[in-house]
Specification:
Layout lengths: L1 H15 L7 E5 L4 H17 L2 E8 L5 H16 L4 E5 L2 H8 L3 H20 L3 E3 L4 H14 L3 H4 L5 E3 L18 E3 L7 H10 L16 H16 L3 H30 E4 L2 E5 H5 L3 H15 L8 H13 L5 E3 L5 E4 L3 E5 L18 E4 L3 E4 L5 E8 L13 E5 L7 E4 L6 E2 L9 E2 H7 L4 H4 L4 E4 L2 E5 L3 E2 L12 E8 L3
Parallel strand pairs: 1-2, 1-4, 2-3, 4-6
Antiparallel strand pairs: 5-6, 7-8, 8-11, 9-10, 10-11, 12-16, 13-14, 14-22, 15-22, 16-19, 17-18, 19-20, 20-21
Helix pairs in contact: 2-8, 4-5, 6-9, 6-10, 10-12, 12-13
C-alpha cells in the first residue's frame, strides 16, 4: 500500500509540475493523519526532487489544551525528523468577530495567510497542503448545494496561485508574489492515507471537532455522503470525476474568455470599461465570464460571486439604455453609457462615458467643411455638405447629425451647456424644453452633463450632440442642402 500511494503522489507531482527541483516547500501540518502522511511522503521524496521542507503549524486557539497539544506534537515531530518548523497561534474567534465571518471561513483565511507569511519570510514560493480525494468530493458537493458555475464544479486544483484563494484583505500580507499552493494527495483517498499511517507506524493526532456536524463540511462528510453512497457506492469517485471534467471545460472557457477580454475590456486601477457592441456580440457564457472576471479584479478577496449579481449585470448591459445602473457585489456599480459600460467602485461609478466630451466652458469654432479636433481628446468633429438623400432618415448613430444647411448658415460653435439652455427636440412638434430635462429623460450620466458638446448657431442649440437635434434645424422636404456632422476618433 505504501509503495502504491507514493507512486500515485509521485505521478501527481510530475504530471502537474508541483515540485521545482532544489526549491523549499512550506508544508502545512496540523498533526492529523492527512498532513502527517503528506509530510512523511515528501520527506521520502527529498532525494528524488532535491527539495528542502519547512514545517508550518498554526494553532487556531479553538480547542483549548487539545490545540496546544497538537502544536507541541508537530514541533517535536519536526525536531525528530530534522526539519525546520514555524509554530504559531492566532485568535481565530476574535478575527471572525471583527471581520464578521463564520468560524470556518475565518480559520481558513488565517491559516492560509499564516502559510503565506512563512513562505515569504523564508523565501519559498511553494506551499503544500494535505487535501485528498475525499476532500475533493466534499468540495464539489458543497459547491453544488450552495450553487456554483463551472469554476466551482472544478473543486480543488492540484496547483494554483495563492492569490486565487481569495483571502480576506485584513489577514493577507499582500502583495505576495508568485506563491503556489500544491496538493500532492489530491488523488489519494482518506482510507489509503489512514492505511499508510498504520503501515509506517505514524501516530497522528485526531481533531475531535471534525466530528461536529454543525460545521457544513462535517455534515456533508458524515451524513450526506453516506446517504448518497447507499444509492451509489461510487459517489465520491463520481464527484471527483466531475471535478476533472469541469476543470478541462473551464480551461477551454477561460482561454476563450481571455481572448474576448483582450478585445472588449479596458482596465484601469479602479474602473473596467467594456466596449458595448463588442461585448453584446459575445455568446452568453462569455458575457457572464467577462463580467465575473471584472468583479473579481475589483474585489479580489471575494471567493464567491453571487449568480444574481452576474445576471443583473448581464441584463442591464444587454437591454438597458444610457445612464442605467446596477449595484453588484460589495458596492461595485455597473453604469451603462452610449457605446460602453463600466464596472467600478461606488465612488467611481460616475466616471465619464467613452464619448466625445468637452471640458466645461470650452468652445470650438466650427466651419464647413472641415475637421475640428476636440481639445485634449482623441475625438474630432467632421463637417461637410452632402447631397440630399435618405441617409439622414436611416441614421442610427447619435453622434452623427444631418441638419438643414440653410437653417444652420450662421456661425457654428461647439460649447458646453449654460444656465437656461433650451432646445426643441425633434419629434415634439416644436415644443421647447430645458436642456437639463432632456438630459435627465435620456439618462445622460450626471458626470457627463456639463461636458456634453452642443452645436450652437445664432446663439441657439441646433444639436444636443449625442442626444437630439433641434426641430427647427431638421431636414425637411423643403431642404435644399444637407449639413452632415459626425464625431470621429482621430486614432482610427
Amino acid at each position: 500500500m505504501s509503495d502504491s500511494l507514493i507512486h500515485t503522489v509521485r505521478q501527481t507531482i510530475d504530471r502537474h509540475g508541483l515540485l521545482p527541483r532544489g526549491g523549499t516547500v512550506v508544508v502545512g501540518v496540523s498533526g492529523g493523519p492527512d498532513s502527517l502522511c503528506l509530510l512523511h511522503i515528501l520527506r521520502t521524496l527529498i532525494p528524488q526532487y532535491g527539495v528542502t521542507l519547512h514545517v508550518a503549524h498554526l494553532n487556531h486557539q479553538l480547542r483549548g489544551t487539545d490545540a496546544d497539544d497538537d502544536a507541541t506534537f508537530v514541533a517535536q515531530l519536526a525536531a525528530d525528523w530534522g526539519l525546520p518548523a514555524t509554530i504559531a497561534a492566532r485568535d481565530v474567534t476574535a478575527y471572525a468577530e471583527r471581520e464578521r465571518l463564520a468560524i470556518e471561513e475565518a480559520a481558513r483565511q488565517m491559516r492560509y495567510g499564516f502559510l503565506a507569511e512563512v513562505a515569504r519570510r523564508i523565501g519559498s514560493n511553494i506551499i503544500a497542503v494535505a487535501h485528498h480525494a475525499d476532500d475533493q468530493a466534499e468540495s464539489v458537493l458543497m459547491h453544488i448545494i450552495r450553487g456554483s458555475g463551472i469554476a466551482g464544479l472544478r473543486g480543488m486544483r492540484p496547483k494554483l496561485d495563492i492569490w486565487d484563494l481569495r483571502l480576506g484583505i485584513a489577514n493577507t500580507p499582500y502583495p505576495i508574489p508568485n506563491i503556489q499552493l500544491i496538493r500532492p494527495l489530491l488523488y489519494v483517498t482518506r482510507a489509503d492515507i489512514e492505511a499508510y499511517c498504520t503501515a509506517n507506524e505514524l501516530h497522528p493526532h485526531f481533531d475531535m471537532s471534525n466530528l461536529d456536524q454543525t460545521y457544513f463540511r462535517n455534515w456533508l462528510r458524515h451524513t450526506v455522503l453516506p446517504l448518497l453512497a447507499q444509492h451509489n457506492p461510487g459517489v465520491r469517485d463520481v464527484l471527483c470525476r466531475t471535478a476533472e471534467v469541469a476543470a478541462a471545460d473551464y480551461d477551454l472557457l477561460r482561454a476563450d474568455m481571455e481572448r474576448a477580454w483582450a478585445q472588449v475590456a479596458r482596465v484601469s486601477p479602479a474602473i473596467i470599461t467594456f466596449d458595448l457592441a463588442g461585448w453584446r456580440a459575445l455568446p452568453l457564457a462569455l458575457k457572464r465570464a467577462t463580467v465575473r472576471q471584472a468583479i473579481h479584479q475589483l474585489r479580489r478577496h471575494l471567493r464567491n460571486i453571487n449568480f444574481v449579481h452576474v445576471e443583473r449585470a448581464v441584463d442591464v448591459a444587454e437591454r438597458g439604455t444610457t445612464g442605467d445602473r446596477a449595484t453588484l457585489a460589495e458596492g461595485v456599480i455597473l453604469t451603462l453609457a452610449y457605446d460602453s459600460f463600466t464596472l467600478a467602485d461606488e465612488g467611481h461609478a460616475e466616471s465619464l462615458p467613452d464619448c466625445p466630451l468637452l471640458e466645461p466652458g470650452a468652445q470650438v469654432t466650427v466651419n464647413v467643411p472641415g475637421v475640428y479636433a476636440l481639445p485634449d481628446l482623441d475625438w474630432a468633429l467632421e463637417t461637410d455638405i452632402t447631397p440630399l438623400t435618405n441617409a439622414f432618415q436611416e441614421n442610427p448613430d447619435p453622434w452623427t447629425a444631418y441638419l438643414d444647411a440653410d437653417v444652420c448658415s450662421g456661425p457654428l460653435t461647439l460649447r458646453t451647456r449654460l444656465p437656461g439652455d433650451r432646445i426643441a427636440p425633434q419629434g415634439m412638434d416644436g415644443r421647447h424644453m430645458k436642456l437639463n430635462e432632456l438630459m435627465i429623460n435620456t439618462k445622460t450620466p450626471r458626470a457627463a452633463r456639463d461636458r456634453m458638446p452642443l452645436l450652437i448657431c445664432d446663439e441657439g442649440i441646433v444639436w444636443a450632440c449625442g442626444l437630439r437635434i433641434d426641430e427647427h434645424a431638421r431636414v425637411t422636404p423643403a431642404t435644399r442642402r444637407v449639413l452632415r456632422l459626425r464625431f470621429i476618433r482621430l486614432n482610427g
